[in-house]
Amino acid sequence: MFSINQTTELRKRTTLASFGLAPLALAMALVLALALLPSQALCGPKKPTGSARQVLLVHSYHKEYPWSRQVTKGVEQALKGTGVSIATFYMDAKRQSSPAQLAEKAQEALKLIEKTQPLVVIASDDAAQEYLVAPHLKGRDRPQVVFCGVNAPMEKYGYPAANVSGVREHMHVREALALLKQIDPNIKTASFITDASETSGYVVEDMRDDLRQGGPFALQLKSVDMVSTVQQWQKMVQRNQSRTNALMLALYHSLKDERTGQVATPEEVMAWARTAAKVPTMGLVDFAADHGVLCGVLESGHEQGYLAGGMAREVLKGIPVGNLPVRINKRGLVFINLQTAKRLGIAVPYPLIEAAGILVK
Hints:
CATH topology of the largest domain: Rossmann fold
CATH superfamily of the largest domain: Response regulator
């Protein structure tokens, strides 16, 4: 088993009635009267119209976050051809992460929902569940809610519910460790470094459960470190690469720079890591493909969005979302960076190169 080193405490949490035929004069009078009514009086507040935003996609994170972009693309692809418009709202939880800030963002989203009356809300990642869906939307007749990218146990939010179902997130830690072992059988140990976000806490718990249920990983995990700042991240990279054969660099989008107090960009964090890491590195999410790690079995934001969008499509056909079972992502994208392999002096077996879904040459 591995131990968890944590440098900061994680945050806890009218319609019109139908009428029969009438004499011609009465019918004409009714037609004239209806024509003079304001258009709002002819439909109830929950009846969708041609201009209604029938699907609202609520992201936990910000627009520029690569994961958010991929989720959006997946949703758009799944809903292509349905004729619905898709509105988006961003809670910015990576950069404005205090409970007060997130509660305020949830209220903004709720006001938008009340104003636009979407038929379906697609809520991406855990912050949207904790601050918006679970306290404000669960149990309502409308909107129907489809979640995706959720790492927390379903019972935390009371999922599934009569009006809530969706896609749970699974990161391919076991598969990534096995891939590196296949690339270089001499590698025996690894360390796991991630930010101290709530999401990372859930990933670690999933990893622990997988280890208990599935037995030992291909590589022995010597340590699991959850850090809050860029400087702590750099310290762990330097320390652990001298103690283990490889580094799994999981999530790093909420690390603050101790000098400025601002959240560093993932590009800044990983630009340093590319130079500093002298051992093989692994990633878990599709954005890692752009950050110079050697390999990984990457979870796809596009897949999360596509699966959630497919469920929303069923709801748009009239199927209550509560009738749709919770799903979990299955595909992992095998990723190999041959440039990094060359820098590290590693010869990647050709069958693995052929199998790679993402290959950096």
